[in-house]
Design a protein that fits this description.
- The chain is 76% helix and 2% strand.
- By secondary structure, the protein is mainly α.
- The protein has two domains: 1-116; 121-266, no CATH class.
- The model has no long low-confidence stretch (mean pLDDT 84).
Length: 266
Amino acid sequence: MTALIPSMLAAGLYLGGTLYQFQCFSKRLTANAHILRVVGFVALLVHAVSLFLQLFSGQGLSLGFFNAASLIAWLVVGLTLASSFRAPVMTLLLSLYPLALVTVLLAALLPDHGTIFVADRHGLIVHILLSILAYGILSIAAFQAAMLAIQEYQLKHKRPTRFIRTFPPLQTMERLLFQFLMCGEVLLTLALISGFVFLENMFAQDVAHKTLLSCLAWILFGILLWGRHVRGWRGSNAIRWTLAGFLVLMLAYFGSKLVREFILPL
């Protein structure tokens, strides 16, 4: 079975969810959360089938640039939908569904530049999955911070748009941001620890930059959480530190893969 068929089905469902949200927005209506969840969970199910066909081969786990991006988008959408039952995060889907749409198509249509990891190295697989889970949670935090920045700017200048009026109150948005950050920091800590335990050398030449940037991101998120707890950091401080930490973490993972898989082979 080719991965193209479930990938196209998932892309169609993500597109349908996105168009439905824009239609509700244009008509000044609130999108039905039940419809968004049903569409999202069905899309995730089909997306998971395509990921299984792309990631698992007879040689091991294939995590090339586009496969990894598709997996992380799947995880981010799934975590957001799961969180939506207890937190007002449905607005994030307006940007997350298009992200999942693009990544699932890129993984299906563009050539695989996958790195194969040997299947019997279970410790390495644990490290990879923890890293991806941490990246997924912190991606949601970054989206939350971006939305919070837009909301704060428009409210400060007394020009809230219809889109911003659909957001929860600032305090709720800020509380959710730090909940995601705390969860992501814990997972990133476990990912780094598992890397030092299961990898022979976390500072080997081919992974040293990734390790250093991941540690730097861990420090930045740690400083932010300390500042929140001790000094009560909020608002623009929280937004800047969150986006800075996420940018460093993104460079650690996608930056190194982009250079290694696309630029160096040229």
